[in-house]
Amino acid sequence: AAMRSRAEVDATLQTAKLKPAELLPAVHCLSFGPQAGGGECCLLQLEPGLCAELEAGHSLVIRGEKDEHAVLCSKDKTYDMKIADTSNMLLFVPGCKTPEELNADPASCNIIHSQIAGFSKNYWELRRCRPKLKKLRKLLMEDPYDGPDSQKDQTLTSKYTTEDLLSLIQASEEEILHQLQVIDACKIQGYWRILHFDYEMKLLNHVTQLIDSESWPLSKVPLCACLEELGSLEPREMIEHILVSYGRKYVDAGEVFFEMREDKICRAIAQMLLQNAVKFNLSEFEEVWQQSVPEGMTTRLDQLQGLALVDKSSRPETIFLLKVEDLPEDNQERFNSLFGIREKWTEVDITPYIQDLCAEKQTVGALLTKYARSSMLNGVKVYNSRRPIS
Amino acid sequence: PPLSHSGGTGALAQWVLLELQGEVEPRQSGSLAGSLLGDLHYTREGIPVLIVGHHILYGKVVQLEKPFAVLVKQGGVPQPGPAGPHGHYTVTALIKTKLLFKTRPKPIITHVPKKV
Predict the structure, then answer these.
(1) B115 to chain A nearest CA, in Å?
(2) Which residues pair with B42 in a beta bridge?
(3) Which of A92, A110, A129 to mutate: most B Cβ within 10 Å?
(4) ipTM score of the complex?
(5) Contacts of A44 in chain B (CB under 8 A)
(6) Directed axis angle between helix A236-246 and helix A262-274, to 10°?
(7) What is the pLDDT of residues A273-306, one digit of tens each?
(8) A12–B91: do the CB atoms touch at under 8 Å?
(9) Cα–Cα distance, A31 to B33 (Å, whole number)
(10) B86 and A35 in contact by Cβ < 8 A?
(11) Name one GO biological process term (chain B) (predicted).
(12) Interface size between A and B, measured as CB pairs under 8 A
């Protein structure tokens, strides 16, 4: 189609009975561009901060396999994507100027021929969500590392590099790297690995026995001496890794030391004891547990939050292993699972098992209000399922 | 796959959104490509005026609280199916401003020419 001329524009204005004197001199003649009807363009509504990130040159990534709902990831955040319908038509126009821009540039063209690049009745909406990190542990648990003397056939292993994880996990890079640190993953020959629990305990045991025989204070364990004494038993990287996992690294007078983390060590030893049976007599367990931890460490039940659950209703009281990381990631499924394990929960007992579900500014209380029903039992407030348990 | 910049190191283009009520359909059968939509004017007070066919639409300039990014799918149409968009997208432009035309269009009554 031929481009409109000034004469044609003026004629239209006259027919429409609009006074040119009341209008800015510039006019945009809008037509549909060659690709306009193709549907290749779509709109993404940006949450605060994302626009600035794009302008700064950062990328946004859409992640998700065919069977997963797609998420959008910035450098450090994850968002659910949802289609929003409007009843209106949205046309996107490159090179279209606003009145401010036209007024700021008096020499601007009299006729601006603008091509509409595309149009849509809907757009993608974003909602910040928790990164979907359960899959990370699941992938790394496919092949836990159990030491250099592993009997496993190395050709049958499934191992993941950082790039592999970035393409498979629905979370931002920062969230993934942070989670790798939280679960004490380490890089072995370029692949991220989780240690097999038995191997991890073996390494920890080497270190705690050495601390004991050398009478080192738990707050000042020297890295060099550990590597020297234990280097013949295990790879040096593994010795350092276990110290990093179970201690806090610091430098004193140019030497590297570790302050051992009492809570984490006690917790690991508890797991080691609890995983051997369905449940234990609580007082027997507490006795054995205290005897099993390194000299100078004190065991406390609150070290086991999210790892084990005490049954105060049984006589005698018992304790059993229940790891929060083994429970479903989805909110409703998590609550169903918890209420399947125990019909009524106190807030104190259930909190460690739902804490990780809280969204950015959400409280445990808000979650309980939404997914549970409260009642009183023997003067204590308890929560049970909103739906009948089958 | 990342949403990459189409322009490489250059700044992202700024486009404008036009929001209209109703449908956009080609006048003749066939595609919209190349066909005219209308003339967009602004009054001296900055009010957008759109002349489409025999209608005048008055609108307003709105600064978007949440800007849009325009995504272009590489190689094919983005399918907004239940699982979401999959594939490689490029961020072509940002939209921070929209021209919202919500008032009912005023029909233009063509002046009947006087007989000579």
Answers:
(1) 18
(2) B48
(3) A92
(4) 0.80
(5) 68-71
(6) 110
(7) 999 889 999 999 999 999 999 999 999 999 999 9
(8) no
(9) 8
(10) no
(11) DNA replication
(12) 218
Q: Average pLDDT, whole number, for chain A?
A: 91
Is A2's pLDDT higher than 50? yes
List the single residue in A42, A57, A87 with the smallest CB-CB distance to B78: A42
| Inter-chain touch B85–A81, beta carbons under 8 Å | yes
Same domain, A189 and A209: no
Q: How do residues A212-248 score in pLDDT, each as one tens digit?
A: 999 999 999 999 999 999 999 999 999 999 999 999 9
CB contact under 8 A, A43 and B108: no
Q: What is the pLDDT of residues A132-177, one digit of tens each?
A: 999 999 999 999 999 988 877 666 678 999 999 998 999 999 999 9
Could you give the number of structural domains in chain A? 4
Given an 8 Å threshold on Cβ–Cβ distance, is A91 in contact with B18? yes
Residue A245, both tokens: 């996992």
Q: Contact, B99 vs A89, CB < 8 A?
A: no
Domain that holds residue B95: 13-25+36-76+83-107
Looking at the domain assignment, is residue A371 inside a domain? yes
Enter the pTM of the model.
0.80
CB contact under 8 A, A60 and B5: no
Nearest CA to B53 among B30, B22, B31? B22
Domain end among A128, A144, A169:
A128
Distance from CA of A35 to the nearest CA of B (A): 7
Residue B104 has pLDDT above 70, yes or no: no
- Report the distance separating Cα B50 and Cα A23, nearest Å: 12
In the listed set A146, A171, A194, which residue is the last one of a domain according to the structure? A194
Backbone angles phi, psi at A284, to 5 degrees: -65, -45
A156 and A51 share a domain?
no
A60 plus A113 within the same structural domain: yes
Tens digit of each residue's pLDDT (9 = 90 or more) over B57-68: 999 999 999 999
Measured between beta carbons, the chain B residues lying within 8 angstroms of A60 are: 2-3, 69, 91
Q: Residue type at B94?
A: L
Nearest CA to A308 out of A340, A336, A367, A266 is that of A266
